[in-house]
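Page 42, continued from yesterday. The earlier attempt failed because a stray header line got pasted into the input along with the sequence. Redoing it now with the clean sequence only.
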Amino acid sequence: MPRRDDIATILLIGSGPIVIGQACEFDYSGTQACRVLRQEGYRVVLANSNPATIMTDPEFADATYVEPLDAEVLERIIARERPDALLPTLGGQTALNLAMELVESGALERYGVELIGANAEAIATAEDRQRFKDAMVEIGLAVPASATAHTPDEALAVLDQVGLPVIIRPAYILGGRGTGIAHTLAEFRDLARRGLDASPISEILVERSIEGWKEFELEVMRDRADNCVVVCAIENVDPMGVHTGDSITVAPAQTLSDVEYQAMRDAAFACMRRVGVETGGSNVQFAVEPTTGAMVVIEMN
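This time it went through. Structure tokens are written below.
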């Protein structure tokens, strides 16, 4: 890809401390991004609250702010440094949520800052459960039967449509926080409440359970010329219903046939294009029914 000469200074938001639910690969990828952007001749401004990461060493950015990662602090950094662009895709869920806060508050528009890597529409489509489901249906990809809810009463109304057992998936969350499987009405009421509390926009997806299906993830990269590549195919040793953090993953995937892999690869590329990730990497998760081979898209990060 040719170098963009219409921007000079780029603000990169780090992922903050390495915590359960947000993996250390964001710290590594953000560090590499700082290095590469400087090599390309851009002025890099870094905001990261984690003083322990090597990303905050002086040689990785032209200006480094070890400050709390919240929208007010970031707006003050923007006012002082006047970046041309904000890169939010290498700081995990923390950076994505902060970028959306800055968009919604009007801070980026006030200072003329462009979101690069993924725009606000792409982030919202990937993170908002209903928008993501609608986008996948639009391009012909199968998803489990589901609907969104914003209150406990709405959640119960959705349950009447979907039926038990169900999976609760909150929107805009770190590493599955608030996610769970409900087999009884009592479990559902409790999980729905916790899921709504976990989501910063008080939204959950109530999804028909596919517990027991095989779970796969494709790590995919795309550039602005629409070149797409699968970095690796990952298979969870345990089936759907066991959180990845409590399981083991294996790369490359072990039990996919070539036909299944090619179909999953095409679906991941279509997902990335529809969501609108212009540059960088994404994780697209799938479930496959072990006897029929039926495949559904679960989510994208």
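Notes: Residues 258-275 form the longest helix (18 residues).
Reminder to self: strip header lines before submitting.
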